[in-house]
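During the no-cost extension, the postdoctoral fellow (Dr. R.K.) reprocessed legacy sequence entries with the updated structure-token encoder. One reprocessed record is reproduced below for audit purposes.
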Amino acid sequence: MGEPSFATLRMATSSPGQLHSAPRIVGGLTIHLIRHVFLFNPAAGKGRTLRDRDRIRAALDASGLTGEFLDTERPGHAADLAEDAGKSGVDTVVAIGGDGTVNEAVNGLMRLPWAKRPSFGFVPDGTGNDYGFLLGLRPGDLEGAARVLQTGMARVLDVGEMNGRFFANSVGLGFDGAVAEAASKVRYLKGFPAYLWSVFTVLKDWANFELTLTADGRVLDGPAFLAAIANGPRSGGGFLLAPAARPDDGLFDVCRLGGLGKLEALRHLPKALDGSHVGLPWVTILRAREVSLASGRPLTAHMDGNLVFGAGHPEPLVFRMHPRALRVVGNWERDGAQGRN
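Re-encoded structure tokens follow.
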């Protein structure tokens, strides 16, 4: 890596939330060298991340951030690269792409024991960027994301697990899973417009499903439009299905929408953009550490934007919370979990 830039050096400190690494002595001062690995997903954002490559590199360089810059080459590759980076002793693994890239990188990091698990950072430049919202990062503001990484302030956040696979932000089953699948096929729209277009595309043929939801022993049976298991407040590129979800309280926020008709959905779904759907009679919000979803037919689910087919039937989706499992670098003065973004 050569000589570190000034921005990669940190004075020794005991401030809470600050990243740490092995101390070095330079000019009589004890410093910390923050070593990064950047995982770049050229397929994220339907090609936008690839087009932004030079801008991303320039933003990182301008903030004095150094480290290995690795391209992902196949599905699951970011998980392998993140795990290898942790084993090599790096301090921070940074995902560059969208929520799916986040999901893969977090899965790789969670394979490691806590003592060897690097901190995690994110440059949001994908389709939905819901995890970026959680971290107080604005999509497209590459320079701002680089400055946040350079500052290096981290909080310890929760990580969810579904049937042996980890997720950082949310899982959606039912209508929102079908919307995520449709949005992945939209060619000419990106970000929230792709999701909004897909809402109307899916709704015209949508049929509700039977759902058995179990949350810390409490059981709810009946027809459902969707069920979302949330660690963060936002999903689907802009919908606040679980607006009060916090990523560090050790609990999932579970949002269940009951047997909603198509006309009701057209009328009320826009309320999920600002969270004002909460309190409506067909909306149930629960908090729990352990959750299961069993559906009456196989459905598409999304896990941090990545698609899971044949979900919920015949085998249920089983969720378990891992409290305070990952150190995450973010803009904690404007994080989405506190409604300030």
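Residues 191-203 form the longest helix (13 residues). Residues 61 and 146 are 9 Å apart (CA to CA). The remaining legacy entries will be reprocessed before the final report is submitted.
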